[in-house]
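new request in #modeling-help
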Amino acid sequence: MDSTFTEEQTMLRKSTADFLVEKYPEAKVREIEESDTGHDPEIWRGMAELGWMGLVIPEEYEGMGMTFQDLSIVLEEMGRNIAPGPFFCTVLEGAYPILDAGSEEQKKEFLPKIANGELIFTLALLEADGIYDASGIAVKAVPKGDDFVINGTKLFVEQAINADYMIVVTRTREGASPEDGVTLFIVDAKTPGIHCEVIPTIGMEKLCEVSFKDVAIPKKNILGELDKGWPILSKVMERAAIAKASESLGAMDGIVPMTTDYLKDRVQYDEPLAQFQALQHIMADMFISLTTSKYLVYEAVWMESEGLPCAKEVAMAKAYVNQNYKELSRLMIRLYGANGTHREFKPGLYYRRAKAASIAFGDTGFQRERIARAIGLVS
Amino acid sequence: MDFKLSEEEEKRRKEFLDGCKELAKEKPEDFIEGIEADFETKNQPYVTRCRKEFAKRGWLRLGWPAEYGGVGSHMDRVFFGEARGYYGLPGVDIFGIEMLAPTLLAMGNKEVKDRYLPGIGNGDTTWCELYSEPNAGSDLAALTATAIRKGDEYVINGQKTWTTNAHNADWGFGLFRTDPQGRKRRNISFLLMDMKTPGITIKPLEYLNRMHMYNEVFYDDVHIPADQIIGEENQGWTVSQALVNFERSNVLAVSAVRRMLETLVEYCNETKVGGKPLAQDSVIRNKLAEMATEIEASRTVAYYIADQQNRNQMAALFESSAAKVFIGDIFERLGALGSDILGSYGQVSASRWARQRGIWESLYQTAFVLTISMGTNEIQKNIIAWYGLNMPRPLSPVSIEKALAAAQAAK
Ligand SMILES: Cc1cc2nc3c(=O)[nH]c(=O)nc-3n(C[C@H](O)[C@H](O)[C@H](O)COP(=O)(O)OP(=O)(O)OC[C@H]3O[C@@H](n4cnc5c(N)ncnc54)[C@H](O)[C@@H]3O)c2cc1C
Ligand SMILES: Cc1cc2nc3c(=O)[nH]c(=O)nc-3n(C[C@H](O)[C@H](O)[C@H](O)COP(=O)(O)OP(=O)(O)OC[C@H]3O[C@@H](n4cnc5c(N)ncnc54)[C@H](O)[C@@H]3O)c2cc1C
């Protein structure tokens, strides 16, 4: 066992942090958040130059061929800086599914362009139920000649307004189980009949409603096999869940020192607030939440990175971080007093994002049910 | 960051697990379970059986230097703790093995080490810790029991309390005031004593569940040889604070709760209420999943601390305070959760009416062993805030008064 990061990883963390601190000062984060697109093409180009979108893409497809564990370091730093934009959806919801299940032709077509920052991807998965379960997939794709025709509405599609392509999860057959008969399509976002609209949400990440009206997609754009998309998606969701946990962990790792510093600076009753034991114990509790979250996440990240079966560990890490990120940001607001409640201060940014992050790729109830099964409770 | 144990480590880990599994088969029917099982009088024959077996295998000397018969590495201590915790085995005298031996190795001179380490490592002598007094708990430096040097001896008077296992232990180590005039922490010495020395009286104290775990210890002109001191006279505070070589991962407690959760899962699968297994109750599923998650989190932190300590003994100090608070809280909450899930049976003590041998009624009461002894959870939080997060220590009303008076005087 080795509980330390490699020298290369420490350097990666530092260079990532340097870039993000420079490019995503708080004012910039807010500007992007408030903008219509939620995306800054200039920062995006900078990230492409550093090779981030291609970090985990193999070198043969013009990526850097690094590991998921390396990627998680970048995600932690993005979480710490609350960096908005289409990075997460492009890499976790676009590049990875193609890497996992794409044909050689699809890989050659899309991966180099993702790595170079030319293409933004996203995943159109959730529907009206808002659940990460195959039973929620109702949008139909019906064969017609060399095409499939998609009709229906997807919800909470991250950054769909900026996407060049989306992977659309459809129902192509009413199978024996809900998992049977799900098909994934790589869809050009400019295909006629697609309409995107931003849903107002607490985290302002530009989660969209995407409606499909007689959208014709060539059969060759199926990702993986017809009717057999669910296992691909399961893996993608598992990886995205732990990636989201890494991002959240980075934010939590930012909250603790930031709040400590605030308490050291702010004077009331002639003393820095940090002097009051009531607040010290809250900070200690926050440190404990952070510490215990860290290694649970690191273990799951490592397993994912090594390709070990880790459904239970991922569910645990996601469930735990869901709760702890919300809790830490809640306490951060409390310890900042009225400043914490002001839109212009940092705590609220974390608090709003924590809510969104806790929902993405499985909220706590969803994950705990998976854990319950994994620890052997009969259902 | 890599959680994979080396082949060699996996092999060692399995040796400990297999060894403990074998020994667990000999556990008597009426064995009283729990991390405090070592101290229970009824358990003593099996406690001794385990201790002797461990000694034979060298497992009481893990990580010690070779000259004292040491075998294995720091990680072996961790694996052994994990295995013992999982199979609920007694037989490792926490005071001798986990506390005194590391202290002697770090602070003792050769003579002292030669005299005491073999007995500890062979499982021949067991120990107790004589720190707390009625008016010195968290604020240990407020202790008042005295040990006054007279010729070649120290003469001890005063009282200790909450002394776990004093009724079984052969020897004790403790802190005593060797110079009544000196300042709070500056005149304390670290002394060792045979618990059969004339003038020592041990009176049992009853724990919540009636078990005999701890005691009061009274000293009435107790003479002990002066060479039974560790470190210099009046330097005992420093000796007692030596953190070097302590195993701080709490892995034993972690694997103990892991095992308990497994038994609770089995219980929920097997037990029907209203025709439906408890395991199908969505609230129970949610709660057990949450608990399993927290236990896994504490396991990963334990392994992090173990690996850090394996590299550098003084590493991960604040993480280990965090880990201790966390696992202590888990004990208390698991005791409550388990006994809640048992419904009416959650109140039944070990008896023919009990379910799960009464372990939940027991844990509900014994969980405080972790949250109060060895630095309460609140004291651990102080440590995290003051030293881990560098927050200023709060001023006590007394020191504020003093500061104001001094400012006034300066004017
Ligand atoms: C929604 C809202 C509406 C408001 N409306 C009004 C209004 O109409 N008029 C008005 O005058 N004010 C108003 N306020 C201000 C409010 O009275 C203050 O926010 C409040 O007194 C706390 O002060 P603070 O925000 O400066 O926090 P601080 O005093 O800086 O406190 C920060 C943190 O430290 C803690 N803390 C402070 N001192 C101690 C201590 N001695 N021991 C332990 N913990 C301590 C606090 O509990 C808090 O968690 C409003 C605030 C809010 C959030
Ligand atoms: C099961 C058990 C076994 C024990 N075995 C031994 C043994 O073998 N040998 C031995 O010497 N002692 C032993 N002890 C005693 C143990 O070390 C003390 O109980 C412990 O140090 C706390 O002291 P106290 O009980 O006097 O509580 P107090 O110090 O009186 O504390 C009472 C409460 O106040 C809190 N508190 C105290 N100071 C602060 C502070 N500065 N800031 C915030 N909160 C504070 C505490 O956390 C606690 O909640 C044992 C105790 C128990 C419960």
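bot summary: The two ends of chain A are 35 Å apart (CA to CA).
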